[in-house]
Amino acid sequence: MAKIEVSFIDSERKIVINEINALGYGFDYEYASYSNNTIIIPDMTSDDKDKFICFLNEREISWSN
Q1: pLDDT tier for residue 2 given thresholds of 50, 70 and 90
Q2: Contact between residue 49 and residue 55 where contact means Cβ atoms under 8 Å apart
Q3: What is the pLDDT of residues 25-56, one digit of tens each?
Q4: Which fold has domain 2-64?
Q5: Which burial class, exposed, middle or buried, applies to 51 when counting CB atoms under 10 A from its CB (0-12, 13-18, 19+)?
Q6: How far apart (Å, rounded) are the C-alpha atoms in residues 59 and 61?
Q7: Is residue 65 pLDDT above 90, yes or no?
Q8: What value does the mean pLDDT of the chain take?
Q9: How far apart are the C-alpha atoms of 3 and 64, rounded to whole Å?
Q10: Where are the domains of the chain?
Q11: Dihedral of CA 2/4/26/35: which sign?
């Protein structure tokens, strides 16, 4: 399992949350204590992480692990 952290602007919130839900992690994420625009998913499979990273990169949304 892998951890991923995603930072986004308010206008990207809905598409990021929709993608998280589509991957089945709708209840497995938390907002970072330092920002309401940063979501942390602590346990994501490698395949799902790769899919999510492709999604983020296509939309030029910041992420880290």
Answers
A1: confident
A2: no
A3: 988 999 999 999 999 999 999 999 999 999 99
A4: Alpha-Beta Plaits (3.30.70)
A5: middle
A6: 6
A7: no
A8: 93
A9: 9
A10: 2-64
A11: positive
pLDDT for 1 equals 81
SS3 29: coil
Owner of token pair 């990169």: 57
- The set of residues, in sequence order, having a beta carbon less than 8 Å from that of 36 and lying 6+ positions away, is none
CA end-to-end distance (rounded Å), the chain: 12
pTM of this prediction? 0.86
Task: Tell me which amino acid residue 60 is.
Answer: E
| DSSP notation for 19-32 | HHHHTT-TTS-EE-
What are the C-alpha distances in Å from 63 to residues 3, 46?
11, 15
- Phi first, then psi: give them for residue 33, nearest 5 degrees: -65, -20
